[in-house]
Amino acid sequence: MSAAATRVLLVDDHAVMRAGFRMILDAADDIEVVGEAATGVEAVAAASALQPHVVCMDVQMPDMDGLEATRRIVADPDIAAAVVIVTTFDRDDYLFQALAAGASGFLLKNAGPEDLTSAVRVAAAGDALLAPEVTRRVIERFASAPPAPAGAVPVSRAHSADAEDRAHVTPEQPGEDGTRDVRVDLTDREAEVLRLLAQARSNAEIARELFIGEATVKTHVSNVLQKLGARDRVAAVVYAHTHGLV
Q1: Could you give the angle at the alpha carbon of 238 between the alpha carbons of 173 and 113, nearest 5°?
Q2: In the chain, at which end, N or C, are there fewer CB atoms within 10 A of the end residue's CB?
Q3: Domain finish residue from 84, 100, 129
Q4: Each residue's pLDDT tens digit, 90-126
């Protein structure tokens, strides 16, 4: 096992399910299962003690469900783990609650073995994992929500030829009427990248669309996440739609 292997904590109240996940992940040379937990309470304690890179989290468990455990793990500054929700239930309420709790991915238990290993690798790399159809559900949910408050000005592609033209507005500053102004200091290119992220485009797709390299896309995505204060791509998409930025 490589010293740089991704450390994984498995959380599920069914021992057979944990054993199956362990078998799949242990077969990967770059992944190491460092612990297991059967309840949300155990998950929080194990995440603190074992410091995994990724937590594969079930939802319905005794003592504390996976959503609350996710909230506590993500909120703890001493735990750097990304959480991937792995559940039997393809329910929108779980999906949106998981994202609100801070999960970096959402995977169904009927996914294939390669999907599980891919989810762990993606989450460990700091990206978010949602199948395109799930991302579309997120976008549709927030696109159908009430419009952003008065005073919020969408980020869009500017007409200036200067790609570094700025919005010159700090996120979440109160306006004169007391509303929250959610414009952000994005360059034109970053605004384009955010728009494409909100369409569930991958880095490769964004690179092709904008005629730039994938390494450049990664830099722009990183800058967008930092400026939005977003944890990952999914958080950026949710933020963008709920604040009228796309």
Answers
A1: 150
A2: N
A3: 129
A4: 776 777 788 778 888 888 888 889 989 988 998 888 7
In whole angstroms, how far apart are CA 212 and each of 167, 220, 225? 23, 11, 19
Q: How far, CA to CA in Å, does 74 sit from each of 37, 103, 128?
A: 17, 8, 14
Q: How far is Cα 21 from Cα 24, in angstroms, rounded to an integer? A: 5
Q: What's the domain range around 232?
A: 148-242
Domain for residue 58, yes or no?
yes
Residue 57's domain is classified under what CATH number? 3.40.50.2300
CA angle 204, 205, 206 (to 5 degrees): 90
pLDDT in tens, 183-207: 568 899 998 999 888 776 778 889 9
Statement to judge: residues 169 and 122 lie in one domain: no
